[in-house]
Amino acid sequence: MNCNEICDKLSLYIDNELSDEEMHQMEEHLKSCGNCQEELKEYRDLISVLKSLPEEEPPEGYCERLHKKLLENSTQKTEKAASKIKSINRFKWVKYGSIAAALILVFIVGNMNNLGINNLGKAKTESSYDADESPAENKFAEPQMAAPEEAPEMGNGNQNMDEIRGESEIYSLNDSVMITSLKAEREIKIIKTGTISAQTEDYDIFLDDLTMKLSSLGGFLESNNTEVYQVYDDNKLMYGSIRIRVPQESFYELVDYLENTVEVRRKNINETDATKEYYEKDNKVKNLEVQEQHLRELFEKANTVEEMLLIENELRRVRTEIDALNISLSDINDRAAMSTINLEIEEVMTASLTLKSKDSVWERSKNGFINTVNSMIRALGNFVVNVISSSPILIPFIIVCIVGFFKIKKYWKKKMP
Amino acid sequence: MNSNERWLVEESRKGNVDAFEELIRDYKKSAYNIALRVLRNVEDAEDASQEALIKIYKSINNFNMESTFKVWMYRIVVNTCIDFKRKKSINAVSIDETIDLGSGREIQREISDESNNPDALIDRSFSTQLVNDAIGKLEDDFKTIIILRDIKGFTYGEISEILSCNLGTVKSRLSRARKSLKELLEKEMKQS
Question: Cα–Cα distance between B12 and B20 in angstroms, integer?
């Protein structure tokens, strides 16, 4: 080690902070080097002077002023502690609030699911007084519920119901169809489809009756899926998904018949005016046929093989198009002539009674009350189901929330001593 | 940390001012002296040291009993004093600056020169005065480490805790600080 390195280490040497080896080297060097010895002595003197430096007394009244300030801060401290408790309470509100919000969310999602399932067409099985709870469904169900026995002949194709019940959309649709039919002499192509969910007490008798009725109307059962969905004591409860085709003029007659024989729980009737589509396609076919005629004439005049091939290709394309259009035309014809009803029928022990509104305040409020209670029970059930089904997400989420909450609390605690 | 000190800390946490004053009884003078060395002004030293002590009182909940109270409180004192000085230097004015009284009138500052004032030197040995001046001229990092090690007698480990730096930094900084102080003193000696 040279003198510079020694000088740098003198400070540590004085404080005994050197390693044994360095200490040894240092002592070896100091023995031989007078300059460094001098330096060491100066450092030691300096440090001893520093050590003996007298401490200044704080000015007079220092302690009193400090005491006063401390007392001031003491009250602030208790206030702060109080505000801390308040803030903890606030956090409690946050905690409970977020839990409540989560529950409400689950509730809403649950009810949305319920609604969605209903719209998909799965009828509810519980024997409540009235399964219709969404206004969208009531649109069609209401007139039927109101007075099914008053329902006049709807199936005669002579749609004059709109005078009687202007509020219903189906009839106003028919109305517009009538207007268009007045404008053009062409045949109206209306595709009628219905979806009906119903309950019956005896499935087999109903099915026999339905088949008889259909044969008298000129319709038929396109498909019939029947299954046993529940075995109750010795009785088998059946469920059927039936597709009925019926001549369009008998459509409403059949709907009426169904309403009178079974307990309809949901009804959806749809009439699509395919007239425009039909005649557009028809015109297209006519144009293409003219084009085909021209091509044939050209084909006969063709001289070269190349020309013939080109024309033949074009002819083939036109013919394919005509065929495709003809298929869709005949499909429209078929669907317009024969209406479709998708019937979901389930067998129950006792079909629930139809509540016929007599327009009495008491009856209606009773129904309303029953509806509300039913939907509350259902909503509660859905809620429980949804809480349980969403628990794989909900539980980690709640854990994260709680952990986060404590972290924040800790952070605040640190920040506000 | 002895049980008495521990009890006093517990009491202070509950807001007992008397217990806290008992706790800092031996330290407040040191706190004041550190402030005085850093700030070199009696009023500022009082303000800064009291600010530091109040800060200690307010944040005594954050003190974990693992380290010693002394080390923990000196850390707050040193940091508060350095902060105080920094804030002050922003508002500091140059003594050469003139004071503008408005409407174009300017006056020169009059600052009393106490360097040759015999009263200021009374009861002080010449070398002490010289050393104090030299310490005052050191930069803050060097000044604090000299105060902590050579005046207050903290160990290297404690200093590293107070200054929140590692042991190597303490060693090198202390070496440089002592060297710097020695050089300053030598310069002053030559001048006088």
Answer: 5
Q: Report H helices in B14-41.
A: 17-23, 28-39
> B121 — contact with chain A (CB < 8 Å)?
no
B182 and A46: CB-CB below 8 Å?
Answer: yes
The string of pLDDT tens digits covering residues A125-159 is 444 444 444 444 444 444 444 444 444 444 444 44
User: Max Cα separation, chain A?
Assistant: 135
Instruction: Tell me the C-alpha distance between A42 and B190, whole Å.
Output: 15
Contact of B143 with chain A, judged by CB distance below 8 Å, is answered with no
Beta bridge partners of B106: B100
**E-assigned strands of B76-180?**
98-100, 106-108
B60-116 residue pLDDT tens: 888 887 778 888 889 999 999 988 988 887 765 555 555 555 555 555 555 555 444
Give how far Cα B77 sits from Cα of A253, B35, B46, B136, Å. 98, 8, 12, 18
> What does the pLDDT look like over B15-67, one tens digit per residue?
888 888 888 888 888 899 989 888 888 888 999 999 999 989 888 888 887 77
All structural domains of chain B: 3-191 (1.10.1740.10)
Tens digits of residue pLDDT in A388-401: 988 888 899 999 99
The residue among A23, A24, A29 whose CA lies nearest residue A1 is A29
In angstroms, the separation between the Cα of residue A374 and the nearest Cα of chain B is 57
Predicted local distance difference test score (pLDDT) of residue B111? 52
Asked if A124 and A199 touch (Cβ cutoff 8 Å), the reply is no
Q: Does B15 contact A at CB distance below 8 Å?
A: yes
ipTM score for this prediction = 0.76
Full-model pTM: 0.43
Helix (H, G, I), strand (E, B) or coil at B138: coil
In a 3-state reduction of DSSP, which class is residue A235? strand
Residues B161/B78, Cβ–Cβ less than 8 Å: no
- β-pair partners for B100: B106
Contact A70 B21 (CB under 8 A): yes
In contact, A170 and A140? CB cutoff 8 Å: yes
